[in-house]
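Appendix C reproduces, verbatim, an entry submitted by the partner laboratory led by Prof. M.T., so that reviewers can inspect both the input and the predicted structure.
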Amino acid sequence: MANDMKENNRISGTRSDRAFTIVNGILIFLFTVITLYPLIYVLSASISSPDAVNAGKMWLWPVDITFKGYSRVFRDPDIWTGYRNTIFYTVFGTLISLAITLPCAYALTIKKLPGRKFFSGLFLFPMFFGGGLIPFYLLMKDLCMLNTIWAVLLPPAASIWNIIITRTFFESSIPTGLEEAAEIDGCNVFQKFFRIILPLSAPIIAVMALFYGVGRWNSYFNEMILLKNSALYPLQVYLRELLIITQLNASNTSVSTSEMVTAAEQAKLASIMKYATMIVATLPVIIIYPFLQRYFVKGVMVGSIKG
């Protein structure tokens, strides 16, 4: 009797496992379709005929391929200026953020640090309470940072949430005995940080670089408020203005008189420019992400669990 019950439980468990696997497979397939379809649709729409897109004939693959949208987007020299500015803001902004986040997170792991709890609470407070846009603007004005690159680089230099994740990674992944051995060998705090902690923290460094880099690349709202000089605009602000201007008044685009077409054709062109701008803005991040994916997964999983 006991053996029959065990056999029934084994069969039942096997069937349950199979059902669980099938359900998981279906859900993963659905999530994949839901994720990939918008990406493929936007890419196809950016190189398809606007008539086909507006008429609903294009639902997945390109129809009547044309590159007029990309041609018009890249014809504007401001786009290249925006690319240069965005790359500058992303690279140097990410380096500044890492230079602040990593030492700050490590300092919070030192139990002998005077005022450790006070600083932890001080960091947590802005996560729940903020001054708002107007006080932020007035502060930037009083600091003489309006319409400068520092208005883009410094305000988002550190994220409290990223500091907490990095601190948790240090506490859970760096053996305490390793630091104690370094102290016995005569290493001070700075030597421990640069010679031991950083070489062992490649996963979390890659994760933080990805977090900060993507945030910098996609940022446009603060830049739109704090910058008045168009030569300092990042790519996202340029693309936003280009799309709005194209939709409202096609005559403002930088084309010669011989290239002017009817208003209806300009409206059609504006519709595919909308998709072209999406690809232009997101393609660099999509290209870079696969190279950091393994560090991203490892760093988030390790940094999110303590112990």
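Residues 254-261 have pLDDT under 50 and may be disordered. Additional entries are available on request from the coordinating office.
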